[in-house]
Fold this sequence. Notes:
Rossmann fold; 15 helices; 13 strands; alpha/beta; six-stranded parallel β-sheet; globular; seven-stranded parallel β-sheet
Amino acid sequence: MKNKKIIIGITAEGSVNLLLGQLAFYKSKGYQTYLMAPYSERSAKFCIDEGCEHLIINIEREISISKDLKTLWQIFWIFNKVKPDIVNLGTPKVSFLGMICAFFLRVPKRIYTCRGFRFEHEIGVKRKVLIVMEKLTSLFAHKVICISRSLRDFAIKEKIFKKNKTLVIHNGSSNGIDLSLFNPNEEIYHKVKRELQQKFDFKNKFVFGFLGRIVDDKGINELFEVFCELYEENNQVRLFLVGPFEMSQVTNKNLINQINQHPGIINYGRVKQEEVPGFMLTMDIFVLPSHREGFGNVYIQAAAIGIPCIGYNIVGVKDSVSDGFNGILVPIKNKLKLKEAMIKLMKDKEMRSIYGAKGIEWAKNFNREIIWQELHKIYQS
Length: 381
């Protein structure tokens, strides 16, 4: 019996972080594995590390009829050449175009992994177009995997997906987390913490941490405003920003200058995945007031390291942060409640300790190997 061919597709090359270890696992199970994604040094290295073939496509997140038609033909040609037994496509654009091709080429198993909805904060024609794209993608798929229960419930309630073909793997998340990597007892991470504390003079300072893309959707504007108020009241607080600043996704074009000029903010930039645990250990509280998440994997990473979390009470985040157990959830875009939560945890060391310890236990519910095994069962069914 021939090895089954599986193509995993993503729109943005940065999304390979959501697949770490997964394709290598499938290869160990006998699959011929392929990643369909734009080329970058990161995606190329990912394919080498995972032992999969890189199927390079030219694709952009934003809608462009002429460019999207070229990408559609490119994907059609790839699928026709490779003749996959399974396609699992995640992120809206590649899923929409890829599922059309897979449907007409009669790929035996077509899976759409929904990681969230771009239309949530859109209005007018663009919102309607994005909703239609989601409905058509699910129509052409055999199964739709939502990466959180709240995302699935929202999709069914809004009649985006049909209940009988929509499921959630285990407790949610598209890839789980590597508990061996996010281990708070690893001495190397504590060494990184000490080095960062010394480099940025964090010793005897209270550090609020943010890790992710620095864009409007991640709540950077509210966080910046709230932190500025906190700093005026107490100049011993710090905001440690870890992640890339994406100018195209930020409305306030002066924000990067305001951040860089603020004496209490350290804007570090992007770090490698294996460096994340050490950087997180430097934080007293993890704060990510994201407006939109399919599932907040980064909150689980912080929990695994023993860091209490603060986020908005929205779809996806409410699955990854248990309010009052390992963190605090507040109403979306409510700066007053966000500030209150930050002050509450800052002042209550015992609560931080309790949330941190519970978070380590909470994170064990999202072991990535469980996710992979469940996906393997779906591919074999």
